[in-house]
Amino acid sequence: MSLPQPRPAVAGLPAYVPGARGAADRLPPVKLSSNETPFDPLPSVAAAIARAGDGIHRYPDMFAVELHERLAARFGVGADQVAVGGGSVAVLQHILTAYCAPGDEVLFAWRSFEAYPILTHIAGATPVMVPVTADGRHDLDAMIAAVSDRTKVAMLCSPNNPTGPALTRDEFARFMAAVPTSVLVVLDEAYVEFVTEADAVAGLEELPRHDNLLVLRTFSKAYGLAGARVGFALGSASLIAPVRACVTPFSVSSAAQAAALASLEPVAEQELLERVQQVVAERPRLRDGLRALGWDVPEAQGNFVWIPAGDRTVEIAVALAALEPAVLVRPFAGEGIRVTVGSRVENDAVLAAMEGHGAR
Question: How far apart are CA 169 and CA 200, in angstroms?
Fold first, then answer.
């Protein structure tokens, strides 16, 4: 009997591996596996979500008009230069749906965000994955060399998840000068609020200079709304319009819209920025503690650090998860371990757990 079969590209998709969550029958874990904020939601944001719950029997604003307008005002662009979706992953899928067809190529560094090859295959395009350098940076010369007449989209992740370094302004300018303007460049800035390097590329500054650029942002990290699922893209109205046409109707819930709007209030944004600074202050302590154990941790500009553990990756992650309480990190088998920068207590737990797992 013949049964319906999926497209070959879908049947062969690599699995997205979420961060570990811990077991119900054990102590609450030290969960540093998903690059979440260590802080509870702001009271003002939690209250906005609760108020939105009173109307949950109604559909949300399908076009998230108020959120588009507030984001436009916040970032100094027109409302028609913003596309909002259910997390930056969903927005990226809408971008690739809008711009890619079978036979097209999507270029990105690797290792980078693991959704990139998955979303590329879903769009029917072919991923072109260029290895990062030994210190976890985009190899822009190799990426430029990999551009072909089939390249439709090039994705740059700054800071790069999971390795940590951010692109510099000069690196970005060199890449944009070398890539044809027919190639859509997506600058993924999911962790931009944590960047402290003075010469790091700033997507908002670059948008007016490049007609083929989209900047991708999220409320999941610095804004602490990972569970709400709100992301957005910024770019010219002509680039954004096809993306908005591909957004799933009602994909941003009323509670998520309310949470994002509350987070954009000036007082709330200031509180969130103060929380970001606490994470940024802890980041070098965690990085340096791991370096003291012999690990060659790259420069970290997100809310995470990278341990290039190679073939010891799974062994170390399993050992940390077996502790009581478990210390949960994100292993990438055969490559390395990403550790979220948590609270001081959580970071101390990581460093203590890693004492027996120094570099050899």
Answer: 6
pLDDT single digits (tens) 112-164? 999 999 999 999 999 999 999 999 999 999 999 999 999 999 999 999 999 99
Distance CA 87, CA 190 (A): 10
Under DSSP, is residue 156 helix (H, G, I), strand (E, B) or coil?
A: strand
Measure the CA–CA gap between 244 and 347, rounded to whole angstroms. Answer: 40
The DSSP secondary-structure symbol of 194 reads: G
Measuring CA to CA, which residue among 124, 125, 197 is closest to residue 160?
197
pLDDT digits (tens, 9 = 90+) for 244-274: 999 999 999 999 999 999 999 999 999 999 9
First to last CA, the chain: 56
pLDDT band at 9 (very low <50, low <70, confident <90, very high): confident
- Collect all residues with Cβ–Cβ distance below 8 Å to 352 and sequence separation of at least 6: none
Question: CB of 113 within 8 A of CB of 88?
Answer: no
Spatial neighbors of 63 by CB under 8 A, at least 6 apart, are none
Q: Over the stretch 44-94, which tens digit does the pLDDT of each residue have?
A: 999 999 999 999 999 999 999 999 999 999 999 999 999 999 999 999 999
Alpha helices in the chain (DSSP H): 8-11, 43-53, 65-75, 88-99, 115-122, 140-146, 169-178, 203-206, 237-246, 254-263, 266-292, 313-321, 344-353
75 burial (CB, 10 Å; 0-12 / 13-18 / 19+) is: middle
CA dihedral defined by 99, 101, 104, 106, rounded to 10 degrees?
50
**CA–CA gap between residue 295 and residue 298 (Å, rounded):** 9
